[in-house]
Design goal:
three-stranded antiparallel sheet, five-stranded mixed sheet, 60s Ribosomal Protein L30, Chain: A, CofE-like fold, 257 residues, alpha+beta, 2 domains, 23% strand, homodimer
Chain lengths: 257, 257
């Protein structure tokens, strides 16, 4: 009656994480959080870090009083009933508007994914009503940097996912998704592996890093929990270096729309 | 340096689960799997069960040799280059075709969600090339029945999610989603809860049961692992009785399309 070792996954929200300020070194924050929990990084671990604290550490903070909306932003703000200064930032962060309507502004972000308001965030910023947070400039690079620094500090380079919370077509409710990935796969391609009866699986590419982000999101929540970093142990992910862009469908290959 | 107790989530794929046959009692199978792992159900636990074994236990097996395609199925099969008998079953299981193209047939399932091929599955059936598996007739009811039977067998009624693996618009890769829910929320509404700085969260409804399904999917895989049941401990879900249909956006309220 032995339990197979690789079928247990543990997710731990690191305790004692302080409010993050611009310039903070997240790798050191993570090492301190691991210390608080009495944990050490092991080979094969992964860390999921909310984009919010990555953005804050990178100083992606904008004061709306300093934003001058374009005429397009004013027009879109009128149609969506949003603050034209926020719309201006949403448009600057986007390739194109995907959908807009009263109280709705969905864009294709400059990074390639589709989300509400280009991921611009007014909650949990803590720097006043007129201050908003933009997503990191290059979340894959942020993930890579944090991974490398953790390697220097601990001797172990974990997989790193920078997570965001997105709405989606067809289904209600936000889920965790990966917007930055380092040292682990974004997609896991199971095609060609036999199923239980030797039949070849036809379509089986897992949105792996998104499911990792969703697992962490069950612990981080979105409100006042203050648990922005989750350690995942037991994933057994294949040794691949994915990038978040692997997860983005180009519109011309989107079979679901 | 204490670790807060409610910030750890453990997912365990139950060992020793046999191949499921029509008529098998999944609650008993689950109890045996827990025994194999040396585990007992605790209040607040959740079980994620793949739709595949629920379908098999419920005998949702169809022999294609007995399926007579309609003229519409023949036409759609020509356009999608699929087996007209499978297309016939896909159409019978759907409300409408959402998208079709060569090798692509996306439908709104009769249950309400949008997925490829109405969730009809030819892999891991193990009953011959011409045998396919349809989704359970009423997965919310299946989840409710398994939950109630587990209560009778163990004295604990866990949350239950019946999971499937879906592709999606905008993003690559399949993720785990909930198609049946009992004894736990499908959506968790965080609106009105203050964020860290007392600001009210504006849009925060979590696709909770989908993230639970995705967590389990990281362990179950889709190929030859034979790990169709995952115990989740430490979720701390609110006491709500969700239904999978809570997760399905009606097209007229779909802000993302």
């Amino acid at each position: 009656m032995s339990v197979v070792a690789d079928v247990q996954l543990t997710a731990i929200a690191l305790p004692g994480i302080p409010l993050i300020e611009p310039g903070d070194d997240l790798a050191s924050v993570i090492v301190n959080g691991l210390d608080h929990a009495g944990l050490r990084l092991l080979a094969g671990d992964a860390l999921v870090i909310t984009s919010k604290i990555v953005s804050k550490s990178e100083g992606r903070i904008f004061n709306l009083q300093e934003v001058q909306p374009s005429s397009q932003a004013v027009e879109v703000a009128r149609e969506t009933r949003k603050d034209p200064r926020i719309v201006e930032l949403v448009l600057r962060e986007s390739r194109m508007i995907s959908r807009h309507a009263p109280n709705v502004l969905v864009t294709q972000h400059r990074l390639g994914f589709v989300s509400a308001n280009s991921g611009i965030d007014q909650s949990n910023v803590g720097l006043g009503e007129d201050v908003v947070l933009l997503l990191p400039v290059d979340p894959d690079e942020s993930a890579h940097r944090i991974r490398t620094q953790l390697g220097h500090l601990t001797g172990v380079e974990p997989g790193v996912v920078i997570s965001d919370s997105h709405g989606r077509p067809f289904r209600m409710g936000n889920i965790g998704v990966a917007i930055g990935v380092a040292g682990m796969p974004a997609l896991v391609d199971l095609r060609g592996r036999p199923d239980l009866f030797g039949r070849e699986l036809k379509i089986s590419i897992q949105g792996y890093a998104d499911m990792v982000a969703s697992t962490a999101n069950l612990l981080t929540g979105e409100a006042d929990e203050g648990r922005p970093i989750v350690l995942l142990r037991g994933l057994n992910y294949p040794a691949q270096n994915g990038r978040a862009v692997d997860l983005y469908r180009s519109p011309e290959h989107d079979l679901y729309r």
